[in-house]
Please model this.
Amino acid sequence: MLRLRVKQAMADAVAIGRVWRYRAGAYAPSGRVVPSGERPAEQSRFDAAVAAAEGELEKLAAANDIFAAHLELAADPMLMENVAEKIAEGMTAADAVHAASGELAALFAQIDDEYLRARADDVRDVCHRILRQLVPSETDPFAAIPDGSILAADELAPSDTARIDFSRVRGVVTRHGSATSHLAILARNRNLPAVVGLGDDFDRLDDGTIVVLDGPAGELLIAPDEHTAAEYRRRMEEAEARSAAADAYASQPVTTRDGRALAVLANAAQGRALTGLEFASGIPGSVGGGVVMNAGAYGGEMAQVLVSVTALDLDGSIQTIPAESCGLGYRKSVFSDGQRLVLEARFQLSSGDPSAIRARMDELAARRKEKQPLEYPSAGSMFKRPEGYFAAALIDQCGLKGFAVGGAQVSEKHAGFVVNRGGATCADVLELVRQVQARVQEQTGVALEMEVKVLR
Model:
């Protein structure tokens, strides 16, 4: 038995199973020079491949916000122009994508910040998705994973993990990767035992070898003896029994009265090992307000977990309305017209590991702190996302970051926020919003609609 101490064990859980090695096939550039008369058709092939990749990403982005970022990357002007230039010079579309991928990933890899440096993997993954449209594979390599395997790979990109049936995988080990990689985040969220960035010791993992991933101890055991293997199987079975018991408890809906803060509800759920409200942990406001607006963030929204709402009509009658009759859409519901008052809401959550739930909440909090102007008072995101656009990008495009009226200012950190830099009045904020809407409409033709409700 070989016992290795690992630096990056991504979950507080254990797993034992046989290694299944995934060996990704690398793209081999053809080197073919495309005749000048065929280059417009090659450009069209690339455009069609991008459109197909974007179609896949739009579906994936609905469930996982990492793919929303990939969707933006797929249409990034720097990538589009780089590939177009290479095609115009005579490269095939596939060769051009492969070359551009390497160049752009190299730029990200030079950045000092670890989080941004890890985005080089996102660039490669998006380009690999486009390449699969240009050079389609006949088989899904992950379909052959045996039940109960420890999946071992040099690295796993988001597009890889989206194709894996994790019910057949007990744990994951990769040669490359960091604590900020998509796989590391996914493992923490699922409480899936995983070791990322094993390095040269990865070569010790042969197909079929029994290995143990011990998250609490931060160890990887290769070819454990019979007694050790039996002990880890017992621990794993006990953990599965606890999970089954928690599942039975989680099948009961959670009821809360309006007035409770969304963040308090999310934290209370985490304390009871219930998952489904992590997205709400940083949303300001009450449960009732969250229901009225169908509040959401980072791929989650109230509609995903809401069972029913008890509401008071203007005539004094009280009704319980099932979620499917609540008209839940993007930041709206049947309660948005103010004709009913939300008294109580019931949610259906799922059992989960408290440490994994907390890790996800902490991760979202860190992302908010990094990207949002939390150092200043604000009402949160000011504008709804226009179909096909991002409000913040349009405002930035119009040169309005830092634009101010009185004490109200378009945040210099995130243009979708209007912050109070000191002494801002309601009139200041509304006038600033009016001018931003007018400028964006004039310069882009897109009408921005306020996400914040104004009571007069």
